[in-house]
Q: What sequence folds into this?
């Protein structure tokens, strides 16, 4: 076994419109590579090959192609938006490489050249609604930025609501980056939903959340405890931008910084030394970080960095990362994940640093179901994994949002 | 914005793939398996049992009519063609054979789900319009009996054609039958010479 140095592509937009999460992804991969190289655990080293597509989808394929052909990368960690992932797929297919995609996404994909470690809808929106509907009610207002994530996530939300005799009081989309959201506030004030499902992203989302805080001051019926705002992709990375406007938001993720495990405590104290006490760690950081560790463990176990061997090894049994063991489903190449639900709290008046307080955990990792094959919103036990044996999943509650 | 749109699910469906052993066939089978579909393969001929399958996916490059156990004009289930050649004769054959969606070779890691949704939706729409057309044709075939029934009512009630027509309509509405069925009943009861002609 003579690997020596294994080049690994790190493909995140460190600049451009979503640089905030791109930077998180980049640092997650980078720190994992450094840890692995310094650990003395492996008889190979990773050589980081960086590429910055600057937030524009068409640059991703060019960068991925360069990484594979010029730098000899067979593994690429990265892409965050669905459009950038789609751009990279033909490149991975041509070069028979492996893309490590770690971002939560809308599902309905299962590409042979991709390992998916971010949540798909049955691990995100479904548990979120299962939590919120019995607590807050069935009348929802759906919002989204005008692209596939918002459309598809809201479509699933509609279906979930239809399955529990719920009601969609409104469904509105605004262009990405549009901060003109007053009409949404007017409509929400008039319709008075039980909760708001916010799939706006970036600046639109920030403008909306600030406006909702102003509305809540005028009319307490829109305070978070009476009309909560839900998100499937709000992470710690955006909390400093939002400040007090984030108070009370409910989000779902498969990692929050406040996860109370000894492994997470160790992980955070190590990172504090590297990134300083004020940097918060989000799932956008943890996803690539864990992916690089999975890659190292799989190469170590199978004795090869050939993508097909690595993939077979990954699917054979769970592998250890510093935070948890991760198991990849051989059929879909998606990870088993434990959905968490959390609410944003600001820690004190003197210091506006917000954090997520975890309010619900599923009992164990949930099998991925990217095509929602084992799910029927109108069926009483939809969302549980049907008749497929899912050992980790025995105690998961029924999807049916309300029992009557 | 239909609130009734449901995520298409193919769990528990069965599919037969008619294609020689090949990486393209494997790629299709792998994708079908992910969707919870029970897959069987066949080559060079589709067995008679393939008629029970919910879906048939067939090779349009090397395919020919003798491979199918049913006549060309019969399309028992949604079918998807696997196309390498785009020579118009091949495309035409695939369509005639019943393909309502297609996948281009080489088969990649995606595309099957979308093709299935298109094929099953188109198939259901086609079925529904065929049924509707058959129903309308059957009613159309009863035109002479309806005319005769109106004449009968006119004689019986001493009314004009409009009133008799309206009466026939009311009777249909009240008995929740079509006007054609009511007309046939009337003729049968009155022993009219054309009664029962609908069967002809």
A:
């Amino acid at each position: 076994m003579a690997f020596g140095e294994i080049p690994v592509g790190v493909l995140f937009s460190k600049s451009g419109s979503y640089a905030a999460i791109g930077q998180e992804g980049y640092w997650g991969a980078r720190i994992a590579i450094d840890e692995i190289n310094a650990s003395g655990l492996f008889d190979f080293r990773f050589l980081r090959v960086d590429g910055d597509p600057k937030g524009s989808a068409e640059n991703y394929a060019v960068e991925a192609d360069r990484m594979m052909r010029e730098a000899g990368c067979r593994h690429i960690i990265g892409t965050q938006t669905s459009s950038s992932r789609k751009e990279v797929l033909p490149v991975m297919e041509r070069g028979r490489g492996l893309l490590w995609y770690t971002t939560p996404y809308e599902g309905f994909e299962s590409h042979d050249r991709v390992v998916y470690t971010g949540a798909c809808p049955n691990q995100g929106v479904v548990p979120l609604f299962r939590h919120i509907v019995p607590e807050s009610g069935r009348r929802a207002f759906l919002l989204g930025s005008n692209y596939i994530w918002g459309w598809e996530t809201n479509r699933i939300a509609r279906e979930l609501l239809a399955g529990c005799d719920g009601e969609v009081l409104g469904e509105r989309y605004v262009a990405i980056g549009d901060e003109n959201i007053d009409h949404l506030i007017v409509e929400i004030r008039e319709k008075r939903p039980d909760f708001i499902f916010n799939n706006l992203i970036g600046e639109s989302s920030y403008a909306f959340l600030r406006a909702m805080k102003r509305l809540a001051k005028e009319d307490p019926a829109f305070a978070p405890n009476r009309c909560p705002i839900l998100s499937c992709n709000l992470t710690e990375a955006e909390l400093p931008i939002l400040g007090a406007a984030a108070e009370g938001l409910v989000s779902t993720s498969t990692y929050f910084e406040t996860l109370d495990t000894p492994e997470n405590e160790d992980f955070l104290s190590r990172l504090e030394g590297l990134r300083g006490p004020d940097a918060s760690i989000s799932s956008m950081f943890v996803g690539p970080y864990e992916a690089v560790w999975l890659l190292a463990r799989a190469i170590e176990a199978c004795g090869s960095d050939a993508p097909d061997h690595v993939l077979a090894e990954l699917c054979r049994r769970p592998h250890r990362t510093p935070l948890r063991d991760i198991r990849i489903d051989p059929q879909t190449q998606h990870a088993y994940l434990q959905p968490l639900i959390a609410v944003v709290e600001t820690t004190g008046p003197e210091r506006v640093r917000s954090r997520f307080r975890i309010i619900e955990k599923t009992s164990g990792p949930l099998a991925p179901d990217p095509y929602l094959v084992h799910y029927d919103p109108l069926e009483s036990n939809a969302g549980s994994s049907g008749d497929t044996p899912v050992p980790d999943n025995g105690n998961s509650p029924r999807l049916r949002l309300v029992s009557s | 914005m239909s609130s009734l749109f449901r995520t298409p699910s193919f769990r528990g469906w069965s599919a037969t793939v008619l294609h020689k052993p090949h990486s393209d066939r494997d790629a299709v089978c792998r994708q079908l398996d992910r969707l919870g579909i029970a897959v069987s393969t066949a080559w060079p001929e589709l067995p008679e049992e393939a008629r029970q399958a919910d879906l048939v996916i067939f090779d349009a490059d090397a395919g020919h009519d003798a491979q199918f156990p049913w006549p060309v004009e019969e399309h028992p289930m949604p079918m998807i063609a696997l196309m390498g050649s785009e020579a118009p004769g091949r495309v035409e054959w695939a369509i005639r054979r019943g393909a309502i969606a297609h996948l281009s070779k080489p088969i990649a890691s995606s595309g099957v789900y979308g093709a299935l949704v298109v094929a099953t939706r188109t198939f259901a729409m086609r079925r529904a319009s065929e049924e509707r057309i058959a129903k309308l044709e059957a009613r159309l075939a009863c035109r002479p009996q309806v005319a005769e029934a109106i004449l009968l009512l006119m004689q019986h009630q001493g009314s004009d054609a409009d009133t008799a027509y309206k009466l026939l309509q009311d009777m249909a509405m009240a008995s929740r039958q079509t006007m054609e069925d009511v007309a046939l009943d009337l003729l049968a009861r009155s022993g009219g010479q054309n009664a029962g002609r609908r069967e002809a």
About this structure: Chain A touches chain B at residues 89, 93, 108-114, 155-156, 158-159, 162, 168, 171, 331-332, 371-378, 386 (CB under 8 Å). The first strand of chain A starts at residue 4 and ends at 11. Chain A has two domains: 4-120+261-326, 122-257+339-393.
